[in-house]
Amino acid sequence: MSSFETVFGRAPEASASAPGRVNLLGEHTDYQGGFVLPTAIPQRITVSVGRNRSGEHVLHSANSRTTLRVPVGEVGSEFAPYITGCLTLSGVTEGLDVFIQGNVPSGGLSSSAALEVATLRALRDLYALELDDVALALRGVKVEHEFVGVKCGVMDQMASSLADTTTMLLIDTRSLERRAVPFPAGAEVLVIDSGVPRRLAESGYNERRAQVEEASRLLDVKELRDVTDVGTLDGLPALLQKRARHVVSENARVLAGLGEDAAAFGQLMNASHASLRDDYEVSHPQVDALVALLQAHPDIFGARMTGAGFGGAVVALARAGRAAGAAQDVLTQYGPDGRRVVP
């Protein structure tokens, strides 16, 4: 198994890790000032760094067994922009060796945010940067916007930087106020990868963001966060009305879910998936099939896609102690090839 030492022949000068996240409610609301309810997952990405006294960054991914060489000041390709963006925005002007390893699955669980937060934490340690956890998260968002090309909101990086695995983190993405919220009693979280890959920058993600920004402009509001009555949307063009209806109703679902029992919370998750599928149109037929199997299982309170969509992971709220069994039942029906097996 490779390590910084085996790849670069010396010990790293700094090392840090960050978790992925799964979002229970509040999807595609964070770039409209809305409310989100993520939690950290146990899987993490670790980044180790060391100065190499050269004019290039050497980036090694243990998972893909890939080494990239990028001149200082350039962005690079493949996974490099997530790293070089962090380096550039942190004022790094010398060559670094960077070693990346982790077990956060790609697709809906914020592996990119975990990579950015882990990198920024390692740089904070290496250079004694005055960067608190919120400022660090916001720098990760800037990396996505300026170097990766994804106009994401703040949820993923905030969750990776601030959330833990024992509670949900309610975030007001306008004010950045946040507080821990307990999981519904008698329930546990189940996450399943649908097996459908997706790439945000090449998907409809940026298009959806542009659509809701246009809806906000037509409604003469700063963000759809300021709309609480879906009837207000009736004058919008049909497509923009659907997109805006998801954001407005999703914000309401997050607030409605606070303090609810598992059954009621699960129903809100089911409604969230229907809205993402039908109004926001960011789901996928295979994801829908997996969600439907989960929703039909007697030990599942509710299920939905999670993350930006177009494939990726699904999240379910299961009876405490029953998640593993439910997952086995559902995956048997879903099929090893990523498609539902018809009985």
TrEMBL record:
User: What does the UniProt keyword field contain?
Assistant: ATP-binding, Carbohydrate metabolism, Galactose metabolism, Kinase, Nucleotide-binding, Transferase
In this protein, which residues make up the domain named Galactokinase N-terminal? 3-50
| MF GO annotations | galactokinase activity
Record bears the keyword ATP-binding: yes
Is tRNA-binding among the key words of this record? no
Q: What class of enzyme is it?
A: transferase
Pfam family membership, one? GalKase_gal_bdg
Taxonomy, superkingdom: Bacteria
**What are the GHMP kinase N-terminal domain coordinates in residue numbering?**
91-162
- Domain GHMP kinase C-terminal, first and last residues per copy: 260-335
User: InterPro entries from the entry?
Assistant: Galactokinase, GalKase_N, GHMP_kinase_C_dom, GHMP_kinase_C_sf, GHMP_kinase_N_dom, GHMP_knse_ATP-bd_CS, Mevalonate/galactokinase, Ribosomal_Su5_D2-typ_SF
E.C. number: 2.7.1.6
Q: Which family does it belong to?
A: Belongs to the GHMP kinase family. GalK subfamily.
Mind telling me what this protein is named? Galactokinase
User: Which organism is the protein's source?
Assistant: Deinococcus rufus
**The encoding gene:** galK
